[in-house]
């Protein structure tokens, strides 16, 4: 069995992932990640939905992402949501959110392919 290096801490919090994985078990963790991936793709897949809707969707996703250890996506969602709420420019936050969305979806696919294990 090979050992894979964990993703960078700007993307993933292995301790948070381990905590939820221990509580739910591997299969349910894998299922929850699948549902989160679907929500990310549906709600953050396109940014042509208007800032208020995008901000609302980012806010809906940030808690689940953080709880599962996808810290980078949670931070990006929070940053966008907060700036929209304050009426500030969000171009930089939208770029960061798109990057974290794509990196998180790739990581979720990898983790699900390993049956919900952060390392093997």
Automatic annotation (TrEMBL):
Coiled coil: none
SUPFAM superfamilies: Histidine-containing phosphotransfer domain, HPT domain (SSF47226)
Short name of any one Pfam family annotated for the protein: Hpt
UniProt cross-references to InterPro entries, sorted A to Z: HPT_dom_sf, Sig_transdc_His_kin_Hpt_dom
Alphabetized UniProt keyword annotations: Two-component regulatory system
Domain (HPt): residue spans on this chain: 38-102
Organism the protein comes from: Alsobacter ponti
Identification of the protein by name: Hpt domain-containing protein
Keyword Chloroplast belongs to the record: no
Domain of life: Bacteria
